[in-house]
Amino acid sequence: MSEPVIVANELVKRYGEFAAVDRISFEVAPGESFGLLGPNGAGKSTTMRMVGAVSTRTGGELSVLGLDPDRFGPEIRSQLGVVPQADNLDAELRVRENLLVYGRYFGLPRKLVAERADELLAFAQLEEKAKAKVDSLSGGMKRRLTIARALINDPRILLLDEPTTGLDPQARHILWDRLFRLKEQGTTLLLTTHYMDEAEQLCDRLVVVDKGTIMAEGTPAELIRRYSTREVLEVRFGSDRNSEVAARLSGLGDRLEVLPDRILVYSENGEAELVRLTDAGLHPITSLVRRSSLEDVFLRLTGRSLIE
Amino acid sequence: MTELADRRPAESGPAPRPVRSLYAGNARAVMFRGWRATRSTNWLVVVSGFFEPIFYLLAMGIGLGTLVGTVTTASGHEVAYPAFIAPALLAVAAMNGAIYDSTWNVFFKMQFAKLYEGMLSTSLGPLDVALGEILLALLRGALYAVGFQLVMQALGLNLSWWALLALPAVLLIAFGFASLGMAITSYMKTFQQMDWINFVMLPMFLFSATFYPLTVYPEWLQSIIQALPLWHGVELVRGLTTGDVGWGLLGHVLYYVVMIAIGLVFTTRRLRALFLD
């Protein structure tokens, strides 16, 4: 296997007493799409900022493209593309100008930047908006422009912090399609998300992060296999009755998870569990059988849901 | 692979020169951005600021000046009133232009537009950003000053060939104010704090020997005003446009050189603390 492009070893970031990142270790191989999955405040963005060489670490080791970000910030940043969580496009400039100006920040020649800007506008499906004001773009377009901007220096690694948060489903799918193309072209992606479906769509491998530490690591399929069953039966008996009924459900499935609004029955065969349940004289208001997802993995590992 | 192998010794070697992490030698990219932004959105605002000192010159110099007659300068020269205040207003023009860009505009870009955060996630360093923004503010100051000096020339208020040196002098003044203005602004967090800047600027404009000689004040007040930057600018430019030149002017130049250096150091440190912690 070729040299990893990112190596974090026992990485720590403290703000006073509070450890935002508490001894995280992971490696990302070139061309890999690697995810940090976790709820808000898990330390994902702080980790991204350290990898992006805009935040110094408090402890541990970190190497990005073979260099220490605390000492070679500009050298590393020149080879990264950064898509921050909140859009910070330049609203005083037009769409295409945003790309031109950003390319110049990297000290790239004007002609090269102009060529790339046109290619990237096409990639981001924003050719018709080239002269538009940034404020007139929709949320999805702004995100696509931010991604195009992050690609202007032909980066070796693209850092994406919550790339689709706040977008409507259609805009998310367009964005995933673009990111998937980048992945196919061999761009290394490091992304954070608190969306399961996003992690499953885009990540070759991921770590589940909670409270600044890594809870588990693997491919999405591995994690599901290791920490969950093949299927899940979700039943609702109404908010008041869920916990009361739960006592009568013990023995059903491999494992039960009682949430305030529903009960999850983990099993290889969800339909069979539903039959057993109704045979026992229980009649849920609603029932649903689905495949296990990373959401279940997270619930198993932390006892909490991802989006609360 | 060779690329990586080449880099590895660097990692185990000594830390790179500290300047490299602060400065990529690309302040012009920041200026380029400012120029594009001004061109596409707010050039009208830029033009409007140009007229303020000209209105003062017409109202006070030409209007009020007919009542005043002549003024005796610090070194004992008799000068017509308009020729006395014009160089002061020239220094003020440079100051205003520099301050507009380096305070409110910088405050907005820092607090709301997140512009510097974006810039500093590229290969730019904090000194590139500081220098680029300050030079841009300086250019605005210089633009106002050049326009104002042309008006002075047309009105016959440049009394000596030394007045040609007033141009580099106002560049220095604009540089000083832009540098210090951005440094101070980088520490501001609220609009209320920004208002303090205005609170200092107006009295400094009115009382820095702008409209009458410093000798009208008691000694203690004179020393306070002599500690403030505008007085040095006014004296420097007045010396040049009235032809009252002596070695003392170099003292004023030195004041501005120090002011520029302090402003750059603090702006760079602050940007680093804010965006590259």
What does this protein look like?
The complex is a heterodimer of chains A (308) and B (277). Chain A is 35% helix and 26% strand. By secondary structure, chain A is α/β, with parallel strands linked by helices. Chain A has 2 domains: 6-218, P-loop containing nucleotide triphosphate hydrolases (Rossmann fold, 3-Layer(aba) Sandwich); 229-291, Alpha-Beta Plaits. Chain A is globular and about 75 Å long. The model of chain A has no long low-confidence stretch (mean pLDDT 92). By secondary structure, chain B is mainly alpha-helical. Chain B is built from 11 helices and 2 strands, in the order αααββαααααααα. A two-stranded antiparallel ribbon of chain B has the order 1-2. The chains are: A alpha/beta (308), B mainly alpha (277). The A-B interface holds A 3, 52, 54-56, 63, 65-68, 71-75, 77-78, 80, 82, 84, 86, 88-94, 97, 100-102, 104-107, 153 and B 1, 4, 7-8, 10-11, 15-16, 20-21, 24-26, 29-30, 32-33, 36-37, 40-42, 113-115, 117-125, 275-277.
Strand percent estimate of chain B: under 5%
**In total, how many beta strands of chain B?**
2
Radius of gyration of chain B: 21 Å
Find the structural class of chain B using helix and strand composition.
Answer: mainly alpha
